[in-house]
Amino acid sequence: MFEVIEREIGLSPTNQRKILISISIIILIWVLRYLILKLVWRQTEDARIRYQWKRSIGFIISMVAVILISSVWISAFARFGAFLGLLSAGLAIALKDPLTNIAGWLFISTRKPFSVGDRVQIGGDIGDVIDIRFFQFSLLEVGNWVQADQSTGRIIHIPNGKVFLQAQANYSKGFQYIWNEIPVLITFESNWELTKTILEKIINKHAEHLTKTVEKEIKEATKKYLITYFHLTPIVYTSVKDSGILLTIRYLCGFRKRRTSEHDIWEDILKEFAKNKDIEFAYPTTRFFNQQLEGPDTVSRK
Fold this sequence. Notes:
The protein is α+β, with helices and mostly antiparallel strands. The protein has three domains: 2-94, no CATH class; 108-170, SH3 type barrels (Roll), CATH 2.30.30; 177-274, Alpha-Beta Plaits, CATH 3.30.70.100.
C-alpha cells in the first residue's frame, strides 16, 4: 500500500507512516476527551463545573496533541532550524496582537482578575463574563441603553490584551454589594421632617437586614483587600436644591438587584406619599410674586 501511494502521489513511506501516526494520535486524543467529558457530565449537572472542565480539558488535550505530533515530525524540521528561527522572529512581529492576547489569556488564567460568571467592567463595556478563550473573552452586555445594570441581550467579544491596557472593575469578587442612591425631591412647602422619617422607615425595611451579611463579607474581603467601611446601615441625606428639598436615600444592595430594589422602594414611597397631603414632589417651576397685590406672605405659582 505504501508503495502504491508513493508511486501515485510521490509521498515517501516514511512520511506516510508519520501522517498515519499523527492521525492516530488525533483520534486517540479526541476519544480520550470524549470519555473524560462524558464521565464529568455523569457526575455533575452544574453548568459552571461542566464549562470549566470542558475548557480545561480542551486546552490540555490540545497541548498534548501538539507535543506528540511534534515529536513525530521534529526530525523532519531539524534541518530547517535557521529558517524556522527567522520565521519565528518574523511571525512574532507580524502577530504582535495575537501574541499579546495569548499573554492576556495567561494573565487571566493565573491572576484571575475575573472568572466566568463574574460581572465586570472593562473600559466602557459592562457585562457578565460568559466565556474565556485564548484570544478573547465574551461578555453578556449589561447597561448601555438598558437602565439599572440589566442585560441588553448582546454579546461583546473583547481581546484578552485589553486587560493590560484598560482598567477592570469586578462586581463579584471581594465585595459583592454596591452602594445605590435614590434621590427624592420635594417642594419647600412640604413637611420635610415627616418625609425623611417615612423614607428612613422604608429603606430600613428593605435594606437594614443586609448589614450583618455585609459585615461578614467585608471581614472576608479584608484578608485580601484594604476595604474599610465604618457605616453600613441605610441613611437618608438632606440637601437643598433650586427646585426644592432633596432627600437622598443611600443603601447597600446586591449588584444584580439594583433595579428590583429601586422598584420596591419607589412603590412604597408612592404609597406613603399618597397618604400625606403635606408632602409633594418637586419639579422645575417658575414663580412670580407681586408684593403690592399679594402681600408679603403670599406667593403665587404659575
